[in-house]
Design goal:
The protein has 602 residues and is α/β, with parallel strands linked by helices. It contains 20 helices and 17 strands. Helix 19 links the parallel strand 16 and strand 17. Bound molecules: the ligand OC[C@@H]1[C@@H](O)[C@H](O)[C@@H](O)c2nc(-c3ccccc3)cn21.
Length: 602
């Protein structure tokens, strides 16, 4: 007779009740523990009933590991977990935030800020579908995505992970969740975790709440707002995710009016779980408890107590899990953490696992491997790139638009640090945590795409760092100069100057002073564009962080497709204006939120 929790024909709530009744305290707190792959030994998974394993940042089996290598790794962990007394499967988590971006050869989509420029919810959903397939092809069942931050200040190092400064735009683009998890059926209970099947993943709406609203955009800083404004601006996108059955929500490292999100019972339990009816699992961020120790100097056990009692269900420890388990066991046995709180956390974790079908399908589906980086997905990413491009200037004389470019021009110059650098055009969270320069995966750079797009008679001269000598060899019809930001991540991206790095403005000026020039800006956010500089340009395109499919850029600049992107972030004139939404600032932007030309408009 199959026991209830192992019977897929039983209702999920009956399976949870049966399983919990069989679990020891040790097994329950084991389920509340997420550990990094680097410490996930078979004995830990088997003997401690660990709930989950993750790849933090760019942690991978080895350099250029393919989807198949990942599936071997994840299945290895899962087999160890299934050896545990009750055989509770783990879920494996990765930051698949713009495709399955850590896996070599996976399709890399534009980062969220570029998707926000498309305003295309259907596109976002289709990207979610493709991302889920490529994540599952690597054996992974859990994506720490989507980030639904509302970025109110471009000085924030995670601005590019946000769809927009505008709450309604973020809510619209959060439709990526439906692609990732699948569309819940009519009548699906509100707030109840939902995963449609083996081609979908558990998602994670993050970072709850107000991560994008911190003072001066300081990462992990303080968001100073009334509760009404916090709800209206930053909580609103979570309503959509909860109604669409989001499986997990990640707490923010940041604070709200000085209150740490990770230990705030009012926001994590009274609001998120009680008032908004979230029935999935709240997960901490990486080493969040250790950071509290570093900030406040108390000991780790104090933060196990305050965060679990506040409503954290699973802790992304991720290394010193023995200490976490020891402290949590002590706090449960001492009664400082009520058993009811432990059971609530474990129920939520098991609810997600049952909803995701992990007990039925704990191992990878190798039939998905061919879908990784497939043509269909790359064409989808190419479409997203096209739709994300925002045309900010087209012609020095409004009556003489500069774009679309002549693809049969005699001789063109392609210049700048970002013209032929796949790593730069992908940005952070690609291959590694912070991202890097170079041929980091399979993809098409802007230069590759230009060489394909132009006529056979057109000579393409590529010069990453042009000098006056570049122009000695004869005339150019025009130049395409791609400059912008190097990859960055989290606090590493916090920046209060926001000028174009690598002397990008000077490089472009040197070219624009000599020949007609289109500048393509590769960046995670608006950057300073001085008036004297703008005047020199014949055309300017904001391309954000487009990812692996550079052809999406040439599709539009050579006129096969029209520009349709619109600014997801207000383009400030000077950083002194920031944040542009504060009442004391004049709303005097260089380009307003929603701005975007088409190549047949002036
Ligand atoms: O990768 C897991 C999570 C991710 O989902 C969160 O959005 C993000 O805040 C985060 N930072 C780190 C992280 C931070 C410092 C060192 C190593 C890792 C890890 N993580």
């Amino acid at each position: 007779m199959i026991c209830v929790y192992r019977n897929p024909d039983e209702p999920i709530e009956a399976r949870i009740k049966d399983l919990i009744s069989r679990m020891t305290i040790k097994e329950k707190i084991g389920q509340m523990t997420q550990i990094d792959r680097s410490v996930a030994t078979p004995s830990a998974l088997k003997d401690l009933s660990i709930g989950s394993v993750l790849s933090g940042g760019g942690s991978k089996p080895f350099e250029k590991a393919t989807s198949s290598d990942w599936a071997d790794m994840v299945d290895g962990f899962q087999k160890a977990a299934l050896e545990s007394r009750l055989g509770i499967p783990i879920f494996y988590g990765v930051d698949a935030v713009h495709g399955n971006n850590t896996v070599y050869g996976a399709t890399v989509f534009p980062h969220n800020v570029g998707l926000g420029a498309t305003r295309d919810a259907d596109l976002a959903q289709r990207i979610g579908v493709a991302t889920a397939l490529e994540v599952r092809a690597s054996g992974v069942q859990y994506a720490f995505a989507p980030c639904i931050a509302v970025c109110k200040d471009p000085r924030w190092g995670r601005c590019y992970e946000s769809f927009s400064e505008d709450t309604e735009t973020v809510r619209k683009m959060a439709s990526i969740l439906i692609g990732l998890q699948g569309q819940p059926p009519e009548g699906h209970p509100k707030g109840y975790p939902f995963v449609a099947g083996r081609n979908n993943v558990m998602a994670c709406a993050k970072h709850f709440v107000g991560d994008g609203g911190t003072n001066k955009g300081e990462n992990e800083g303080d968001t100073v707002l009334s509760f009404d404004d916090l709800e209206r601006i930053h909580v609103a996108p979570y309503l959509d995710c909860i109604s669409q059955g989001v499986c997990t929500i990640m707490a923010s490292y940041s604070t709200w009016n000085g209150r740490r999100l990770h230990s705030d019972h009012f926001l994590l339990t009274e609001i998120l779980k009680d008032r908004l009816g979230f029935k999935g699992m709240v997960i901490s961020d990486w080493e969040a408890l250790d950071r509290l120790v570093n900030i406040y100097g108390l000991n780790y056990r104090d933060y196990v107590l305050s965060t679990i009692n506040a409503g954290i269900d699973m802790v992304m420890v991720p290394f010193n899990y023995e200490l976490f388990l020891e402290d949590l066991m002590y706090l449960v046995e001492s009664g400082e953490i009520p058993m009811a709180r432990i059971d609530d956390a474990v129920e939520r974790i098991l609810r997600v696992k049952f909803a995701a079908g992990l007990f039925e399908y704990p191992l990878s589906d190798r039939s998905l491997l061919d879908i990784v980086g497939c043509k269909l997905h790359r064409e989808l990413a190419r479409e997203a790139v096209r739709k994300s491009l925002v045309l900010l200037k087209n012609g020095k004389d409004p009556k003489k638009p500069f774009l679309p470019l002549e693809r049969n021009a005699k001789r063109i110059l392609v210049a700048g640090t970002h013209a032929d650098d796949l790593g730069y055009q992908c940005g952070g969270w690609t291959a590694t945590w912070a991202g890097t320069s170079g041929r980091i995966t399979i993809g098409t750079t802007i230069l590759d795409a230009i060489k394909e797009a132009v006529g056979s008679e057109t000579e393409v001269v590529h010069e990453p760092n042009p000098t006056p000598d570049t122009f000695a060899g004869g005339d150019f019809s025009f130049a395409i100069v791609a400059v912008g930001e190097p990859p960055y991540v989290e606090s590493g991206g916090d920046n209060s100057e926001l000028t174009i790095p690598f002397n990008g403005a000077e490089v472009v000026s040197l070219v624009a002073d000599r020949i007609p020039t289109l500048m393509i800006l590769i960046s995670g956010r608006p950057l300073v564009l001085e008036p004297w500089f703008l005047e020199k340009l014949d055309a300017l395109v904001a391309a954000w962080l487009p990812g692996s499919e550079g052809r999406g850029i040439t599709d539009v600049i050579f006129g096969d497709y029209e520009f349709q992107g619109r600014l997801p972030m207000t383009w400030f004139k000077r950083v002194e204006q920031l944040p542009l939404h504060a009442e004391e600032n004049l709303e005097d932007p260089l380009f307003p939120f929603g701005f975007g030309l088409t190549s047949n408009t002036k």
